[in-house]
Design brief:
alpha+beta, Pseudouridine synthase, 3 domains, 4-stranded antiparallel β-sheet, globular, disordered N terminus
Amino acid sequence: MAKIVTEKRFSFLLPDGKKKERIDIFLANSVENATRTRIQKLIKANCVTVNGVFVKPNYLVNPGDSIEVVIPTSPRPEETEPEDIPLNIVYEDDYLLVVNKPAGMVAHPSLGNYSGTLVNALLHYTKKLSNLNEPGRPGIVHRIDKDTSGLLLIAKDEWTHAQLAKQFSTHTIEREYWAVCWGKFKERKGEVIGNIARSNKDRKIFAVSKTEGKFAHTFYEVIEEFDFTSLVKLRLKTGRTHQIRVHMSHIRHPIFGDPIYGGRKIVYGFDLAKMKSHVENLLEVMPRQALHAKTLGFIHPHSKEKISLDSELPEDFQLLLKELGD
């Protein structure tokens, strides 16, 4: 029997004033659960047209462009398949492991993303993964966004998973993120407190709300200042979806490169054309939000010892910092 292949279609009509940007970057930031590598493969497979014409990944989009994307899909597999995908493991024992997830990798299979996820890689790496979650999410204790890099905790058995989840629910897990944010902060240290709820303007994203949502609390500390950005250390008191990104945008210091919460437009404006060009070049360097889950601390459920782990900043983050400091 022939395999039935379905497809998803996306259409974009670029408005007046849209700045020039590589089409692979634009689509990676515009198509849900898409990575830049996946978009490039679709372009090379003639699945993307601009004004009815096939283009190359380095095509620069323009105002008025009509973009069509066709993504071949297939029905969700009955079981998640193991895949030989390299893992950067920073800690492992008989009960748990911690991986340094790269930007662009989804934590677990979801609609339109049934392969290439962290779970696919974990299933190839080990047969010992907790089944405490619903099917398709073995071992996953917590998540970080697809385009956020950094440390993730994985449980190998149900009891360990439950004990680690309890530490998250009681907010005793220590998590520190590093981010490049727009602007210079008035205070070197501070906190943001504000409920996070679905945005009334766009239900796919989140916003700070006075009357709805869940309580959220973020601490920040400036590590280094640049001309128009700051390197910031952030600590989560709570762990809400998109919490850091929403809170930083709320106080007008969105994370540099963030395509959803205002990080890809010039927040602190410049009149000089050469400065605008410089910022656009930096956004090319960082086609995602400049956010990395750098450290992770927890009490080991079995040994009761404090485990404190640190990770290096990824290559794109380091390059951005170098360009900002030059």
